[in-house]
Design goal:
Oligomer: single chain
Order of helices and strands: EHEHEEHHHHHHH
Pfam family, one: GST_N
CATH class of the largest domain: Mainly Alpha
Largest sheet: 4 strands, mixed
Domain GST C-terminal: 86-198
Organism: Bradyrhizobium shewense
Radius of gyration: 17 Å
Number of strands: 4
Number of domains: 2
GO molecular function: transferase activity
InterPro entries: Glutathione-S-Trfase_C-like, Glutathione-S-Trfase_C_sf, Glutathione_S-Trfase, Glutathione_S-Trfase_N, Thioredoxin-like_sf
Strand content: 5-15%
Number of helices: 9
Structural class: alpha+beta
Distance between the termini: 22 Å
Length: 198
């Protein structure tokens, strides 16, 4: 049985949405970060960073939301959450799958802290560039790869939900609003949001 270690009102939302989209049977293991449960020795064997979310699947265990998305989509191809390895769309899928932790999250931190970092040294370029590139990609729609929803939409949608809708740390744009509305209309998103609320 797949076990998803999560905590309410946390970054666990991405993986809750993933598992709800997947249709796979899974057990939710509450890991209450308000009590420090994520620092318990048993949990640190699953995720040595002591963060949520984490996932175990038999002998496999991992942390990091985007990695969990990649693992589940590849390990369980019947979920149809990733293009096949031989599919040319796989390259863009991987790029967008990791765009949220690699670009959106650093851009949010840059906006929030008002830190000036030269674009030549910041791996994400600049917050403006991140959101301009994402806006152009989403304008084509309906999903990041076109007609087919994938795990990349889960990481991108979660990142935008956090940055634009929930915490208003990044400016809203018409393409973002339309994309978020499509994400929020998905029954799996709605189920995950209820679970994540605690």
């Amino acid at each position: 049985m797949i076990k998803l270690y999560w905590s309410p009102r946390s970054r666990s939302f991405t993986t809750l949405w993933l598992m709800e989209e997947s249709g796979l049977a899974y057990e939710r293991v509450l890991t209450d970060i308000s009590t420090g449960a994520q620092k318990a020795p048993g949990y640190l064997k699953i995720n040595p960073m002591g963060k949520v979310p984490a996932l175990s699947d038999g002998e496999a265990a991992l942390g990091e939301a985007a990695a969990i998305c990649a693992y589940v989509a590849d390990r369980y191809p019947e979920t149809k959450l990733a293009p096949a390895v031989t599919d040319p769309r796989r390259a863009r899928y991987l790029q967008w799958l990791f765009f949220s932790p690699g670009c959106i999250e650093p851009a949010i931190i840059q906006i929030f802290t008002k830190i000036e970092i030269p674009t030549s040294t910041a791996a994400w370029g600049s917050a403006t560039q991140v959101f301009d590139v994402l806006e152009a990609a989403l304008a084509k729609g309906p999903w990041i790869l076109g007609e087919e929803f994938s795990a990349a939409d889960i990481t991108i949608g979660s990142g935008l939900n956090y940055a634009v809708r929930l915490f208003k740390m990044a400016p809203s744009r018409p393409a973002f609003d339309a994309y978020l509305a499509r994400c929020m209309a998905r029954p799996a998103f709605q189920r995950a949001e209820k679970i994540a609320a605690g």
